[in-house]
């Protein structure tokens, strides 16, 4: 586990007045033992997950307990309760690719959740590994799997509501914000205008269960093949027009540095493959190409939905840099 992951753990427990990491581990062992039919001789090992979130503490349990699926389980402690509706919906649609999360009650004012341990490692782990980079074939596998997952089980549109009021609220927030990049405000305003003009086409887009935080931390990949093995953290998922979360796939095509965004040398190949696979999968579900004209505009709407609140919250220029990256791509598709 690297120093950044250890700092996340320290930060989480710094907010805990009445418990510690070791006490959470003891709670897990005692709880699993109490469920087990094997008695106190059951071997249970608890260790921190090598990949931690910003708002939780996650540990992995090696055990032989029939109460939990398989011989490994993920236990997560959180300061705030999460809504499991999105995860339940995702599990119904995607099966084991969206491991089912269960609420197990509270411990020392922390909310406790369990799920099976999914195979693979977070894609961000492959991005930051100091080993041999993924081959193009493996990256194409990842891109294709995500294209299919993000367009899976699409539904007919149900008269999607106009977003005019929402866009007006975004514009009002942006108008009051003091940008470091002065040109960005004008570009956001121009995008809002174009999205409004596409309202009729947007209403034709298929509806999918949309993961609202599809960062490289939240999908797992088999390092040997590039296969996407699981998509995690469906909290807040909504049924929205397809394309709303396509801005997250930019992480498959490049990466951010202190000096700005850098495209992968194979960006054009990977990006074309993603959109080809996404469109083909939607067409295979009975939708016409003409129904997909507003995909690019929905992607930008999702970009504004995700980054404008971060822009207002952080005020450190980082959200501006990411927002600029996405607007630079608009309207590509």
Features:
333 residues; alpha+beta; 11 helices
Itemize the secondary structure elements and their pairings.
Layout: H1 3-13, H2 21-35, E1 45-48, E2 56-62, E3 72-78, H3 85-94, E4 102-107, E5 110-116, E6 121-122, H4 123-128, H5 136-150, H6 164-175, H7 182-197, H8 199-202, E7 207-210, E8 219-221, E9 228-231, E10 238-241, E11 254-257, E12 260-263, H9 267-284, H10 295-314, H11 318-328
Antiparallel strand pairs: 1-2, 2-3, 3-5, 4-5, 6-8, 7-10, 8-9, 11-12
Helix pairs in contact: 5-9, 6-7, 7-10, 7-11, 10-11
Structure described in brief:
With 333 residues, the chain is α+β, with helices and mostly antiparallel strands.
Biggest β-sheet description? 5 strands, antiparallel
Query: What's the tally of helices?
Result: 11
According to DSSP, the number of beta strands is: 12
Q: Identify low-pLDDT runs.
A: none
Biggest sheet strand order reads 1-2-3-5-4
Strand content: 15-25%
Helix % is: 40-55%
> What is Rg?
21 Å
Q: What is the overall shape?
A: globular
- The secondary-structure element order is HHEEEHEEEHHHHHEEEEEEHHH
Q: Mean pLDDT score, rounded?
A: 89
CA(first)-CA(last) distance = 40 Å
Which structural class should the secondary elements be placed in?
Answer: alpha+beta
């Amino acid at each position: 586990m690297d120093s950044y992951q250890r700092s996340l753990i320290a930060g989480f427990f710094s907010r805990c007045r009445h418990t510690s990491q070791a006490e959470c581990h003891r709670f897990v062992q005692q709880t699993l033992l109490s469920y087990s039919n094997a008695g106190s001789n059951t071997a249970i090992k608890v260790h921190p997950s090598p990949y931690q979130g910003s708002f939780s503490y996650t540990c992995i349990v090696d055990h032989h307990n029939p109460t939990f699926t398989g011989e490994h389980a993920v236990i997560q402690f959180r300061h705030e309760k999460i809504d499991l509706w999105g995860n339940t919906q995702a599990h119904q649609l995607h099966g084991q690719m969206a491991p089912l999360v269960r609420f197990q009650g509270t411990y020392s004012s922390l909310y406790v959740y369990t799920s099976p341990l999914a195979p693979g490692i977070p894609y961000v782990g492959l991005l930051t590994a100091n080993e041999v980079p993924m081959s193009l074939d493996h990256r194409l596998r990842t891109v294709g799997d995500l294209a299919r997952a993000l367009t899976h089980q699409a539904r007919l549109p149900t008269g999607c509501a106009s977003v005019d009021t929402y866009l007006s609220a975004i514009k009002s927030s942006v108008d009051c914000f003091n940008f470091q990049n002065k040109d960005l405000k004008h570009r956001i305003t121009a995008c809002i205008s174009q999205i409004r003009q596409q309202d009729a086409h947007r209403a034709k887009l298929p509806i999918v269960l949309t993961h609202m935080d599809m960062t490289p931390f939240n999908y797992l990949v088999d390092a040997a093949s590039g296969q996407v093995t699981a998509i995690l953290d469906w909290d807040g998922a909504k049924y929205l027009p397809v394309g709303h979360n396509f801005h997250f796939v930019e992480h498959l095509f490049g990466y951010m540095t202190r000096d700005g965004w850098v495209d992968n040398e194979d960006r054009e190949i990977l990006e074309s493959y993603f959109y080809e696979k996404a469109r083909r999968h939607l067409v295979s579900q009975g939708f016409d190409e003409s129904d997909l004209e507003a995909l690019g505009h929905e992607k930008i709407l999702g970009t504004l939905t995700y980054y404008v609140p971060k822009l207002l919250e952080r005020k450190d220029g980082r959200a501006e840099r990411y927002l600029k990256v996405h607007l630079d791509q608009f309207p590509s598709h």
